[in-house]
Amino acid sequence: MNRIIVPGEVIAEKEIRMPYTYTEGGKTYSTVLGIYEAEHSSIIPLEGLWSPNRDDDVVGIVEEDKGSVYIVDLNSPYTGVIISKFSQTELAPGDVIYAKVKEFDEKKEVILMHPRKLYGGKIINVKPSKVPRIIGNKNTMLNELIQGSKSNIIVGMNGMLWVKGGDVALATEAILKIQEEAHTQGLTDRIKKMFEKTGV
Amino acid sequence: MEGNKPQLIIDGKRTDGRGFDELRPIKIEANILKNANGSAYIEWGNNKILAAVYGPKEALPKHTADPTMAIIKSRYTMAPFSSLEEHGRSGPNRRATEISKVTSEVFENIIMREMFPGTEIDIFIEVLQSDGGTRAAGITVASVALAAAGIPMYDLPYAVSAGKIGDQMVLDLNKIEDNYSDADIPMAISPRNGDILLLQMDGSITKEDFSTAYSMVKKAGATISKIQKDALKAPYEKIIEKYR
Amino acid sequence: MGYIDIVKNEYIKEILHKGIRDDGRKFMQYRSIQASVGTIPNAEGSAEVDIGNTKVLAGIKIDVDTPMPDKPEEGNLIVSAELLPLASPDYDIGPPSPAAIELARVVDRGIRAANILDTQSLFIEKDKVWSVFIDIYVLNYDGNLFDASTLSAVAALLHTRQPKYEEEKVIREGTLPKLKTNGMVTSCTFGKINGNILLDPDGSEESIMDTRLTIANDENNNIKAMQKGLHGTFSIKEVESMIDTTFEKSKDLRSVLSSLEN
Description:
The structure holds three protein chains of three kinds. Chain A is of the alpha+beta class. Chain A has four helices and 14 strands. In chain A, 20% of the residues lie in helices and 36% in strands. In chain A, α2 (140-149) packs parallel to α4. Helix content of chain B is 30%, strand content 30%. A five-stranded mixed beta sheet of chain B has the order 3-4-5-7-6.
């Protein structure tokens, strides 16, 4: 049975290790507002920030060229860093990029690799906690979005999305609907129907 | 003031008809401001208070940053039209500055700050209408705003004050009781273990009175915690319900 | 402004060129408007107005005061505005910014010029008059604070209780008469981006507009206040056309005001 939990709520009357929890005095407590799936013993946060992991895809904007490194705004409390000599492309402040996380280091800097420049298009910020739903199981939702809007869509785990071409307004509307209804059943079908009704 | 002191307890009832350990009605709504990372609105009796959370974000000015953890910046203020008296001065005064400080200290204990080194988390508490107990209501609603912002916390603290009227200990003083009571004791509590996160007192009480005050606060806490949790869950449950 | 905003703004400019606003509105269309009065019962008057995601609360207090030396038999009107730090990540803590002061002054001018407040009825006795304090609290910023603030201030004024002064005491509770007011004033604000003129600019549009114009008018279509802002310019034709739009759109704003009940 899934249930909505809040910070400080007891998840188990024993000490278990699980992301978004801590243990104290023989009990396990939640640290976030989220959905607890007892079946999988896991917590899906409903709100909140992106915690960077190796190999996460991100969308960001180059903020500064410091010579040996580029500083990238990831719209998060953490700063992205690209080491210039590892970048195949010349970058400049204001460039929108798509890259992979190489490492999240002790200084809480996000070291990025394989940056690719994105030209034009629209940036949409969503809650990072909703990104997995926008992508969907095996990319099902993202494919639905791309087919339905005929737009180019690139999703960053950091909650930044880049959309270009096709019906950008429709793509935006669908993305915001997924964000709003991320925790409900049958969402993929509803998005499919939305495109059938208004689709391009 | 002694001469004009109104009678605050008549036939075992308080001025607004409450019993000694009875809370005023409380209503909380989460996520009502779009720009904030998290927000909440509380009506606690006649108090009306908004709280908004921004961050974690880069700590500015830079010298305030702590390289090991997030810093908490609270700001409590009262609107110039918030009281039934004359037009107030806007902006923080000495009282508001002190309340802001003790509020920050409550959340420094509760937020998992080490996850966000070098950042700040801003908590804005705006009292739109006041009727006594605004600092406690402010902490209670800020708690909800923080959770709604997805900020990892050890617990969801609540706050309420106890007080003394004559020989009687009472819970949750309203404005007129606060003005003429013999003691006012606001407390913030971490519900998971009952630890005290905020404690202030002025007036005169005995050690026994303090124990009574703490028990009253703890008992009321069950009610307040439930209202906080329901407020956080409500927006999601509403959407789940829509598509069930 | 960070680079994220710059990239977003480029997109808004690009589609405006094609005649499309980012939220799908027509160029001369308001976002949805919601208003309620009596939100803060402790205040003598109050109103909350939402225009899209912009949220403004106006609160009114009335106190006994001394008259201005040049108007010894008239009451005072004092309008202030606060861009609260909880309303936007871009608002800072500190004394009122020039933007907040301009906002308060433009709202003040509209209300004064339209004689909404009967200042002579605010005279009590020699050297004693009522001062009406309107505080505009911006709770969430998403553009067009001028229209939202004027609307909330006027809405609050139309539903304000007039305290009594008896035996050197101000009586604020119990049965009180309404504050005396005359008529209505509303404002329409336009933004100009790369030559395109838009009614009711939202937050992202405001961050890239070159020019702004606010026009306040009364129910007889007398223009009561105007304020041009920012570095750009308008032609006379553009201004005339905005005046026409204001006359038309202000009907909707006045019907919001007349539908309010305490």
